[in-house]
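INTERNAL AUDIT FORM
Audit reference: QA-55
Scope: verify that the stored structure record matches its stored sequence.
Auditor: D.O.
Record contents follow.
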Amino acid sequence: MGRHRQKSSDLWKGQNWKQLRKNLFRLQRRVYKAVQAGDLRKARSLQKLILKSRSAQLLAIRQVTQLNQGKKTAGIDGKTALNYDERLGLLENMRQNALDWKHSGLREIPIPKKNGKVRILKIPTISDRAWQCLAKFALEPAHEALFHARSYGFRTGRSAHDAQKYVFDNLKSRVNGINKRIVELDIKKCFDRISHKSIMDRIIAPASLKTGIFRCLKAGVDLEFPEQGTPQGGVVSPLLANIALDGIEGIHPSVRYADDMVIFLKPKDNAEKILNKIKEFLAERGMEISEEKTKITKTTDGFDFLGWHMRVKQNGKFQCTPSADNHRNIRRKIKAVVNNSNYGAKVKAKKLAPIVRGWRNYHKYCDMGSSRDNLWHMRYTAHRKFRSEKKVNRYQANKLCEKGFPAVGYEQNKHIMVKGTKSPYDGDLVYWSQRNSQLYSDATAKALKKQNHSCGYCGMKFIDEERVHLHHIDGNHDNWKKNNLMAVHQSCHQHIHGGKSKD
């Protein structure tokens, strides 16, 4: 049995992942080009090739079992992980059934919302997640060729920072942002109410994939609304929501991130007329506006969008800072680590670093100059806690705070927005690898530049959404010398460490 497991492990780890990614990307690029050229018949036959492709199937299984952040979440079958044997078994299952996939039920997890209500997360099994990932590989390039330029949420090559910069471009002093109003659009239970028919009518896919997607939608239905909803928690759900909502951005100058939307109103614009058009658009798709949450706001009064508070100051300049809710969340996370009595100051500093760095990176294009936003008070509290521990003097507490609260510089409104309707599937490797490198800062950014935006392990350009990891060549995580650091794909990093990432 042990020898058989070892064989499966070697078989899995021995895959030429670099070549598999090239094979899949080549097919995806052809799908993108076919849809751009209006040849939907060719696109559908290429999508079928993706579903049957061993490369795509292996990459889908790896994505949901090794790379995705929610990989340890169990579905209705209770499984939280697949061993190497099970992964290869799933590959065989996919080989036989990819074109006729039967979807299992979903495990429901209640998530409390800010307003006291509950959102239901519906989690598919790992097998279903892998098939959904395979379906996404086939669907995404087809729709990326058609998606609106001002949609930034859950799309490859785009981010919340693009949406943030677009708001700045529409409200800065040069375009008289001080005289504008904005509509904070809230769609009532967006993911739960999207009409299945509206998705199926718009989807570009061969019949077998359409059937699979339909089964996937039906697996997550609310019995009260059997013809509506995409299961929140599915790999393919955000893409399906984008397919249904695409085009809403064309009604009036606006910016959309998934179901969050901001509409810009000049003084002469008729808000009621614009909102009526939006209501008609949503009604066709089974959705409606939340009247109590949709607000028309003066830009000088400020509004919250994607975790930021945005406003135009009285001097006409645009300002963006972390929102009060977002701030409350980071304080709660930091306190949970600092006040935990189960481990000492060194471990606390190590646990704090990725939390603080992630938060600061997200807000690096904001005005972070205030003591609230530079986390001065949180750092001071952490320092006091560290000092209260035995064997920790003032100097050591300072060093630990430096480690736990890593500095990340900020440049207000300096993000470079993605060009027009560009997509990673257009094959412009130079543009996308350089752009992806800008998402990283400090040592990672320097390593990427030194390596000409290519992975130090497999040599491929960083063009997809896989995270870049920083590998310490000598294994010493305190050695931050330039020649000891190498930027690598997350999966390559796992491969270096024998299947598990160490950094």
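Auditor finding: record pair retrieved intact. The longest helix spans residues 17-36.
Action required: none
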